[in-house]
Amino acid sequence: xxxxxxxxxxxxxxxxxxxxxxxxxxxxxxxxxxxxxxxxxxxxxxxxxxxxxxxxxxxxxxxxxxxxxxxxx
Length: 73
Hints:
- Helices cover about 75% and strands about 0% of the residues.
- By secondary structure, it is an all-alpha fold.
- It has one domain (about 1-70).
- The model has no long low-confidence stretch (mean pLDDT about 90).
């Protein structure tokens, strides 16, 4: 179920936010309930993976429809 949410979120909010949501949901399902721990465990990892994929490996990651709409693209 969580991967379905990730796949829909990926299309709408982009890679970074959907990965953060996915990781936070996964940690929550594993029993981590502290919001600070969820954020600290999810955000740096998602941003790091984005950096490796988008900047170092030059893989295009779409920003998501929500951001394209907000930015007028």
